[in-house]
UniProtKB/TrEMBL annotation:
<comment type="similarity">
    <text>Belongs to the peptidase S1C family.</text>
</comment>
<dbReference type="InterPro" id="IPR036034">
    <property type="entry name" value="PDZ_sf"/>
</dbReference>
<dbReference type="GO" id="GO:0004252">
    <property type="term" value="F:serine-type endopeptidase activity"/>
</dbReference>
<dbReference type="InterPro" id="IPR043504">
    <property type="entry name" value="Peptidase_S1_PA_chymotrypsin"/>
</dbReference>
<dbReference type="InterPro" id="IPR001940">
    <property type="entry name" value="Peptidase_S1C"/>
</dbReference>
<protein>
    <recommendedName>
        <fullName>PDZ domain-containing protein</fullName>
    </recommendedName>
</protein>
<keyword id="KW-0843">Virulence</keyword>
<dbReference type="Pfam" id="PF13365">
    <property type="entry name" value="Trypsin_2"/>
</dbReference>
<dbReference type="GO" id="GO:0006508">
    <property type="term" value="P:proteolysis"/>
</dbReference>
<dbReference type="InterPro" id="IPR009003">
    <property type="entry name" value="Peptidase_S1_PA"/>
</dbReference>
Length: 766
């Protein structure tokens, strides 16, 4: 057996989701079937149905760019091509309609071809499956061909599925990465193409090569040729006993003594050329002609029909439209067959202010709709997202609701106290796309108004800061709502708070509901009601903790200050301690963790709200107790709107921005400390090479990067072609890493999103 002829491909799929395919990076196997023309055979589910960025790594670790030249509309095989010439060249990319310059060719390996021998597949043949099984680069699995008439594997409802052919089966135990491997007999001849397997068993399934060989011969004549592929748009399966007369069965068995069944119509696609002529259960007896005449047995009666043959390539999508991250394309034959559809159909109060929690509206970049009384749905825009507290404000156009009787809520700005009677009014849980919301209410009491310490999330993300939350004694499960006084005034917004809960060694996404006092929310609502822009809010740049006065005295607070704090808030008897300082703020350099904050300017503070009110100005003087010493510390406050994300750069599958507030507050990282990777798209160059999300790019090809302007300027100095660049980045702990990233400007052009005048605008960066 000659194993040196086998070569494998490592593939990178762009983040476009064509029919039956998800974006992502993957590894598979392919082998050279024509070294003179550089043709590689692999599976159709490897080549994919849409744009693909693929590279082949040969046995000597040489890496070449490959482009798809054929993917079969039905069966699980396709072909890539690389440049076999000793010089760089251009290859026309079939179906994508663009030209790629191949950066390298095979220089150090004499690449042979593996010829295809479909006639050599015989039950009982000992085989070897050679390929990149489990992404181990080279693995050899053995087995024996047990069946040549196995049904096509069914991989799922919304994924690619082969049909109208038999598969071979053996117990070779192949797994992911071996897709596209050659199945070799003892003479080293390729007798089948590895395609899939059954999970939890050693069963493997191979595609016969008769159709593969026909297409290869056509491509060897012209690699850009459109290989004729016809269909009746009617999948056939093995025959069942559907009333076929005994004499007809005898006649057919005599004509085909090795066959063990016939073909039966399993399903007919709506509006196809044979939709009105074929019925499920018809047994195929004979086929004749281009305008195909079919002789069928229908419940014991022979029926003849003439059916027009459709072009499979014509009903396979060759173009798509990207709209806001969604991919729209004509309905493919594959998905039409999966779902029984027709191919080519489309696939796919006065100011109007509404307060929602940040578990619902996470940021300004997105689309929002508001549903009124389970009846009317109108679009809305995000007007304000509070950087610190768990609420956002969206706005709809009141003209869109017509005469629908909507009234603004009456607001109570008075704080709630324990044991105070209230009503909880909200929507019952279970709100979803296809369900309806039920209004529920319950009379209850306020149990407490206190701070809850939340664990630090990983990775960094928004989490509530410095808030005394309203807790109720007896609540009904809701998605959110309002905490109302007995006279009907809303005193708190009942919101859903997201956090990560530790369960064993894993962190699990969880949520709980608490009330946000309305006086905090109205500080942001009032300017919007008056027609002004979003409010300008300041913060000290500190996450506080509550400790008891007794603990404060142990830390050096004198009796006089302790008495003053007790008299200021006798029901609380607590003091504020610095828990974390935000990166890049004055507080980070001037304060210390564990400092006790007792006054802001001349005002005593013992609650989060008092600190928030006292720091709504550019600078303050804080009275701090540190190691028994009382200090006056001048501090510049933080303008919270400076942390709002209003600029995003999209580069090679990365979403880049300044380090967000969550990174500064939870990891003490400055907003000027590199460019932050907030997201990485599957199938992108960055997903393959790095850097990962939550890292900060600090250097590109030796150019230091401090902020987005540095980054964009550095991009202008980089090569525009498919070159590799060095990217230095830091993780959250500050450890520096270096990676090389191959640029793919064809699939991943650089662009920039800017939030201007209440809307996001995209511009290309060349």
């Amino acid at each position: 057996m000659q194993l040196g002829n086998t070569h494998w491909t490592m593939l990178c799929l762009p983040s476009v989701r064509p029919p039956t395919q998800s974006p992502g990076n993957g590894w598979a196997t392919g082998f050279v079937v024509d070294a003179e023309r550089g043709i590689i055979l692999t599976n159709r589910h490897v080549v994919g149905a849409g744009p693909i960025d693929a590279e082949a790594i040969f046995q000597n670790n040489e890496e070449v760019r490959v482009v798809p030249i054929y993917r079969d509309p039905v069966h699980d095989f396709g072909f890539f091509r690389y440049d076999p010439s000793p010089h760089f060249g251009l290859l026309g990319c079939f179906a994508e309609c663009f030209i790629l310059t191949l950066p390298v060719h095979v220089r150090h390996l004499n690449v042979p071809s593996l010829p295809l021998h479909p006639e050599k597949a015989i039950v009982g043949t000992d085989i070897r499956v050679v390929g990149n099984d489990a992404a181990e680069k080279l693995a050899i699995a053995s087995g024996t061909l047990a069946r040549l008439d196995r049904d096509c594997p069914a991989y799922g409802l919304n994924t690619y599925n082969d049909f109208n052919t038999f598969y071979f089966q053996a117990s070779s135990g192949t797994s992911g990465g071996s897709s596209g491997s050659p199945v070799l007999n003892q003479d080293g001849q390729v007798v089948a193409l590895n395609a899939g397997g059954k999970m939890g068993t050693s069963a493997s399934f191979y595609l016969p090569l008769d159709r593969v060989k026909r297409v290869l011969e056509a491509l060897q004549k012209d690699t850009t040729a459109v290989v004729p592929r016809g269909t009746l748009q009617t999948p056939f399966d093995e025959v069942r006993r559907l009333g076929l007369p005994a004499d007809t069965e005898t006649e057919l068995r005599q004509a085909f003594p090795t066959a063990n069944g016939l073909l039966v119509v399993a399903e007919v696609l709506p509006s196809s050329s044979c939709a009105s002529k074929l019925h499920p259960g018809d047994v195929l007896l004979r086929v004749n002609g281009h305008l195909v005449r079919l002789d069928l047995d229908r419940a014991g009666t022979v029926v003849s029909v003439d059916v027009l043959v459709d072009d499979l390539h014509a009903i396979t999508p060759s173009q798509f439209l990207d709209i806001g991250g969604a991919v729209v394309n004509p309905l493919s034959f594959q998905q039409a067959r999966n779902h029984g559809l027709r191919p080519s159909a489309p696939y796919v109060a006065d100011p109007g202010l509404v307060v929602v929690d940040r578990n619902t509206v996470t940021d300004r970049l997105g689309d929002v709709t508001v549903t009124f009384a389970n009846t009317l749905v109108v679009p809305a825009t995000v007007r304000f997202v509070h950087p610190v507290h768990n609420f956002a404000i969206v706005q709809y156009d009141p003209r869109l609701i017509g005469s629908t009787p909507i009234q603004s809520a009456k607001i109570s700005r008075s704080p709630l106290h324990p044991s105070e009677p209230v009503w909880l009014v909200g929507l019952m849980s279970g709100v979803g796309r296809n369900s309806w919301a039920e209004l529920v209410s319950r009379e209850t009491l306020v149990s407490s108004v206190k701070w809850i310490s939340l664990p630090m999330p990983n990775p960094p993300r928004y989490q509530e800061h410095n808030l005394e939350m309203v807790q109720l004694q007896d609540v009904v499960t809701t998605e959110g709502g309002a905490v109302c006084t007995p006279d009907g005034h809303v005193a708190a917004f009942w919101a859903s708070f997201s956090f990560q809960q530790q369960r064993g060694n894993a962190k699990v996404e969880s949520q709980f509901t608490r009330g946000i006092p309305m006086d905090i929310i109205m500080d942001s609502v009032d300017p919007l009601v008056d027609g002004a822009s979003a409010p300008h809010l300041y913060d000290l740049g500190v996450d506080f903790e509550h400790i008891s006065l007794a603990k404060g005295r142990e830390l050096g607070m004198d009796a006089g200050m302790a008495h003053a704090l007790e008299m200021h808030a006798p029901e609380r008897r607590t003091i504020l301690s610095v828990g974390r300082r935000w990166g890049g703020t004055d507080a980070q350099s001037q304060l210390r963790n564990g400092d006790l904050i007792v006054q802001i300017d001349d005002a005593i503070v013992t609650s989060f709200r008092e600190v928030e009110v006292a720091t709504q100005k550019p600078s303050v003087v804080a009275t701090v107790i540190r190691q028994g010493e009382q200090l006056q510390v001048p501090l510049k406050t933080v303008l919270l709107e400076s942390w709002e994300v209003d600029r995003i750069v999209c580069w090679q599958g990365l979403l880049l921005q300044v380090p967000p507030l969550s990174v500064a507050s939870q990891r003490e990282i400055s907003s000027k400390d590199g460019v932050y990777v907030s997201c990485r798209y599957a199938g992108s160059p960055a997903a393959r090479y790095g850097p990962p999300p939550t890292s900060r790019i600090c250097e590109i090809n030796g150019d230091p990067i401090r902020h987005l302007d540095d980054f964009v300027a550095a991009l202008q100095r980089q090569p525009k072609s498919n070159a590799s660049i060095r990217v230095k980045y830091m993780d959250l702990s500050g450890k520096v890493h270096l990676t090389t990233l191959k640029l793919e400007p064809t699939f991943w052009p650089t662009s920039e999103l800017n939030y201007v005048d209440g809307a996001w605008h995209r511009t290309c960066i060349k």
